[in-house]
């Protein structure tokens, strides 16, 4: 982050120094391009580059939000399938399997979900519960072919659940890069500031233009901020897939 900031500030200082040197030693002649045209061109380039930063940031957080929703739905569906498949296990294991998977889902909704909203680590308790489910799914050697097939299907669903859980854990801690946040804030300030470089005949029109652009940029940055936390905020992914199945 420090290196990126140093590069950005260094390039900006170099560009400013070049402009100062040019105006000091090679002032524009009467036939050169007016300063207003140069300012308009620079303002347009800043707007285009800022639009790219906004687009990249919005796509990044939107993908993270969609991934969190997909991982949650997949994990809940796999847990539900395991709960249903438990009926095909030997009688002494079926009830234990259902109790263990229900305990796991309650742990996810009651303990892990508040922790994810705070971006806190989830710990190993959930994985320990899944290890118990996996151990229960190991059918004995004298089980019937149907029960052995059920055990294999449970292990397959557990593999899907494990993968989805890892994805959910990663989604809960992912954040937009500080470099992009720097570009969003500084780019927004520059884009709005450049609106004051050009005169508009009607002051009311100028005020509306600046206010509208400021509001739109602020809205977009706030939208990115809300989407940057998949499990908290206005667009938080909730544990509905788990509560719906159990």
Automatic annotation (TrEMBL):
This is DUF4239 domain-containing protein. It comes from Streptomyces kunmingensis. The chain crosses the membrane at residues 41-62, 179-198, 204-225. Keywords: Membrane, Transmembrane, Transmembrane helix. The lineage of its organism: Bacteria, Bacillati, Actinomycetota, Actinomycetes, Kitasatosporales. It holds the Pfam family Bestrophin-like. It comes from the Bacteria.
């Amino acid at each position: 982050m420090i290196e990126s900031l140093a590069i950005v500030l260094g390039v900006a200082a170099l560009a400013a120094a070049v402009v100062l040197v040019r105006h000091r030693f090679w002032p524009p002649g009467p036939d050169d391009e007016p300063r207003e045209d140069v300012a308009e061109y620079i303002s347009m380039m800043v707007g285009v580059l800022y639009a790219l930063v906004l687009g990249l940031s919005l796509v990044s957080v939107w993908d993270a939000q969609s991934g969190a929703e997909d991982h949650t739905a997949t994990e809940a569906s796999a847990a539900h399938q395991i709960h249903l498949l438990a009926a095909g296990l030997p009688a002494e294991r079926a009830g234990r399997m259902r109790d263990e998977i229900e305990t796991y889902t309650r742990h996810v909704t009651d303990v892990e979900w508040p922790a994810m909203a705070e971006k806190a680590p989830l710990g190993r308790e959930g994985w320990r519960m899944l290890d118990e489910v996996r151990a229960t799914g190991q059918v004995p050697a004298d089980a019937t072919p149907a029960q052995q097939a059920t055990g294999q299907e449970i292990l397959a669903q557990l593999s899907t659940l494990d993968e989805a859980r890892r994805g959910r854990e990663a989604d809960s801690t992912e954040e937009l890069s500080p470099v992009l946040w720097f570009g969003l804030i500084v780019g927004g300030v520059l884009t709005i500031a450049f609106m004051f470089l050009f005169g508009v005949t009607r002051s009311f029109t100028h005020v509306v233009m600046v206010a509208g652009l400021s509001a739109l940029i602020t809205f977009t940055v706030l939208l990115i901020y809300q989407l940057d936390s998949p499990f908290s905020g206005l667009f938080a992914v909730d544990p509905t897939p788990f509560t719906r199945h159990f």
